[in-house]
């Protein structure tokens, strides 16, 4: 009996080929299914932004005004700029103020009811004329020219006076000032030669030569208003007040022979010459009219 013909030798391998292809396809699909299709990731550093300033706080209500007494009002401020008053500047002391205003510094302390004269403040306003004085009149008097008295070189006998030519008519002057405002009878405070003369704004008086210990004399009658070394640049200093208009200052002494409030006479020895707060032995001598330095050589007698 003859059966069906046998398949070709490679028929089984050919028949298995579709199965292999199917199996490969399934494996590939399984691989694709197991692998996630991720998008590429780019790592970026976070960008730093500049810190922005915080907004200023906004007050919900307007700020309260400072109380009126919070602003310090210096004594005498209401008198600033008025005649007879002085506004304290940096570096001032009561002694310097007294010298520059032509007053006894103790009087200024009393007029202003100052408890501690070492505690004055810049900007403080001080009365520098007596409370009963007319400050406006004194201010105008301070700028008036000094009285100049012409003296004859050689006085004539009284008998010959009747033959002299009549004097020119006198100029009518305002009412005379009180007797204590008269021009003092001046005398030289030292016998030494003048080293340096008065110079407006630079040299406030005369520098007079001498030796240590030479006598320093009061230039006119008066009362000592200061004796000490508390004024920088003057050394051991004596200040004499002669009347309501004039005072004199004697500086750089080695020894002081008078005390404050002591009365002195013209020619009285009040100190000994020295070099305190100076480069050499000398007497620095000032004449002040209403506190303003004037040239002593124009007031002292010729010699």
Automatic annotation (TrEMBL):
User: What Pfam families does its record include?
Assistant: LysM, Peptidase_M23
What SMART domains is this protein classified in? LysM
**Residue ranges of the LysM domain?**
84-128
> Which domain of life does the UniProt lineage start with?
Bacteria
InterPro entries named among the record's database cross-references: Cell_wall_metabolism_enzyme, Dup_hybrid_motif, LysM, LysM_dom_sf, M23ase_b-sheet_dom
Q: Where is this region: Disordered?
A: 38-62
User: Which is an annotated GO molecular function term of this record?
Assistant: metalloendopeptidase activity
Q: Which GO terms describe its cellular component?
A: cell division site; cell outer membrane
**Family named by the database record:** Belongs to the E.coli NlpD/Haemophilus LppB family.
Official protein name in the record: Peptidase
Q: Which organism is it from?
A: Pseudaquabacterium pictum
């Amino acid at each position: 009996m003859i059966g069906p013909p046998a398949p070709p030798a490679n028929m089984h391998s050919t028949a298995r080929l579709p199965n292999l292809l199917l199996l490969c396809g399934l494996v590939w699909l399984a691989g694709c299914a197991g692998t996630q299709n991720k998008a590429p990731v780019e790592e970026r550093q976070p960008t730093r932004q500049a810190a922005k300033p915080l907004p200023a706080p906004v007050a919900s209500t307007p700020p309260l005004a400072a109380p009126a007494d919070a602003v310090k009002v210096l004594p005498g401020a209401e008198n600033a700029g008025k005649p007879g008053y002085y506004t304290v500047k940096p570096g001032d002391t009561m002694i310097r103020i007294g010298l520059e205003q032509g007053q006894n510094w103790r009087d200024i302390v009393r007029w202003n009811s100052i408890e501690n004269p070492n505690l004055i403040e810049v900007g403080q306003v001080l009365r520098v004329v007596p409370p009963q004085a007319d400050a406006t009149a004194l201010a105008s008097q301070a700028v008036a020219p000094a009285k100049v008295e012409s003296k004859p070189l050689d006085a004539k006998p009284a008998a010959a006076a009747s033959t002299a030519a009549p004097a020119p008519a006198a100029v009518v002057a305002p009412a005379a000032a009180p007797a204590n405002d008269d021009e003092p009878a001046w005398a030289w405070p030292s016998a030494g030669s003048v080293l340096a003369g008065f110079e407006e704004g630079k040299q406030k008086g005369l520098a007079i030569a001498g030796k240590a210990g030479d006598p320093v004399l009061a230039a006119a009658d008066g009362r000592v208003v200061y004796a000490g070394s508390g004024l920088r640049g003057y050394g051991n200093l004596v200040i004499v007040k002669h009347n309501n208009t004039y005072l004199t200052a004697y500086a750089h002494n080695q020894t002081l022979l008078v005390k404050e409030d002591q009365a002195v006479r013209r020619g009285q020895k009040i100190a000994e010459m020295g070099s305190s707060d100076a480069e050499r032995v000398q007497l620095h001598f000032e004449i002040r009219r209403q506190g303003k330095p004037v040239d002593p050589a124009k007031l002292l007698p010729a010699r």
